[in-house]
Design brief:
Order of helices and strands: EHEHEHHEHEHEHHEHEH
Largest sheet: 8 strands, parallel, barrel
Strand content: 15-25%
Radius of gyration: 18 Å
Number of helices: 10
Length: 266
């Protein structure tokens, strides 16, 4: 799944078409791109086959699109009423098919809801919807590292081998305090299932130590042989090509220069 080097998530650059973005990325030495693919991004599923073919040619010429992010939430595939749930699952399949047409290897879902009670029972009693590509969920709620939530997550991931995690340094740093004193062990449990890391930068320098800790644990795992793909996610302002490039280069320098943390002791 992984691509070499440190890529870039397209959310950090505004005002460029997909072919323009890929050409610009190639010119800056960015080895691959993660594409924001939902309606809030390039609305990949709404594009015609001819447009997808054009974008695919651009990816082959310039830099590959290795993954695509959806606006869909994992919980929406299970908790909505039947018609809405069916529409969410259909939207996922259409996006995954379009992402596959570009050559991407995965689709990311949001994880803004920690499943418990009826929702957790519904998820445990169901199959993960079929999709053209493997799915990654990004844990967008600070409660995911709480003991019960983490136990539920591991049970779901054990049941659904085609679902794994996209680890975001900001999200996981914010979640560490919920781990009830076992933050390092909880983080290790999450990273066991991670396939992608986003080095998140919102321009505020909030909790830099926490984000660096998450990045360091992933760097150690990559050195030990775990297959993880790394990209920079710039969400600050402005999101001009130059501003994004500056933050991308700074993040890459930090990624390569930081000392690795000592191995975790269980």
């Amino acid at each position: 799944m992984s691509a070499p080097g440190v890529g870039l998530y397209s959310i950090g650059v505004q005002g460029l078409s997909v072919p323009e973005l890929l050409e610009w990325a190639a010119g800056q030495g960015v080895p691959f791109v993660h594409l924001r693919g939902g309606p809030r991004g390039c609305d990949l599923a709404a594009q015609s086959p001819d447009v997808l073919a054009q974008w695919r040619r651009a990816a082959l010429r310039w830099v590959p699109v290795t993954g695509v992010t959806a606006d869909l939430d994992l919980a929406d595939l299970f908790r909505l009423a039947a018609p809405e749930r069916a529409r969410a699952r259909d939207a996922l399949e259409r996006l995954a098919a379009a992402a596959a047409a570009l050559g991407a290897g995965w689709v990311r879902l949001l994880g803004r809801t920690v499943p418990q009670g009826p929702l957790l029972n519904a998820m445990l009693g169901s199959q993960l919807p079929a999709a053209r590509l493997p799915l990654l969920v990004e844990l967008h709620h600070p409660g995911w590292l709480a003991p019960e939530a983490l136990d539920a997550l591991e049970e779901l991931l054990d049941r659904w081998p085609r679902l794994r995690l996209l680890a975001d340094t900001a999200q996981l740093a914010a979640a560490r305090p919920t781990a009830d004193g076992g933050a390092d062990a909880a983080l290790e449990r999450v990273l066991d299932f991670a396939r992608v890391l986003h080095l998140s930068d919102d321009g505020t320098q909030a909790d830099t130590a926490g984000r660096d800790l998450v990045a360091g644990q992933v760097r150690r795992r990559i050195a030990a042989g775990q297959d993880l793909e790394v990209a920079v996610e710039w969400t600050g302002q402005p999101r001009t090509p130059q501003a994004c490039l500056d933050r991308y280069q700074e993040a890459c320098h930090r990624w390569t220069q930081q000392a690795d943390p000592p191995p975790h002791k269980p």
